[in-house]
Amino acid sequence: MQENLRDIRRISKDIIKYLNISNIIKHPIYKNGYEVTFSRHAARRTIEKGISADLIEKAIKEGYMLKFGKNRVKIGKRFKEFEVICVDEIVGNRIKIVTVVKKGG
């Protein structure tokens, strides 16, 4: 039983390693004139936290955007049972989502 669980975890990690959220969200997303891109780490966190691509897209398009530091931003949206927060950095004319957090629920 333990060996099966280890195999499943290893396979899951391999799948997540090659996953990119741009394969899930097929069209470009823009926020305040910036094109939004995703790091592999952010894609991994999205899967681990069980956040659907639809919720991420809705949070980016409809949520708040707070700037902090020189080139950092937080984009988030409060849903009925939880809040999705994307921690990002501004690189040129793009916002790169570095990680995703799910608070509550």
Helix-strand sequence: HEEHHEEEE
**Domain tally:** 1
Sheet with most strands: 6 strands, mixed
Ends apart, CA distance between termini: 30 Å
Low-confidence stretches: none
| Strand element count | 6
Rg from C-alpha positions?
15 Å
Mean pLDDT: 81
SS content category: alpha+beta
Strand order of the largest sheet: 1-2-6-5-4-3
Global morphology: globular
Level of helix content? 25-40%
Q: How much strand content do the residues show?
A: 35-45%
Task: Count every helix, treating DSSP H or I runs of 4 or more residues as helices.
Answer: 3
Short structural summary:
The protein has 105 residues and is α+β, with helices and mostly antiparallel strands.
Overview of the structural elements:
The chain has one domain (2-103). Strand 5 (83-91) and strand 6 (94-103) form a beta hairpin. A 6-stranded mixed sheet has the order 1-2-6-5-4-3. The chain has helices at residues 2-18, 40-49, 53-62, and strands at residues 29-31, 34-38, 64-68, 72-78, 83-91, 94-103. It has 105 residues and is of the alpha+beta class.
Topology:
Elements (H helix, E strand, L loop, with lengths): L1 H17 L10 E3 L2 E5 L1 H10 L3 H10 L1 E5 L3 E7 L4 E9 L2 E10 L2
Parallel strand pairs: 2-6
Antiparallel strand pairs: 1-2, 3-4, 4-5, 5-6
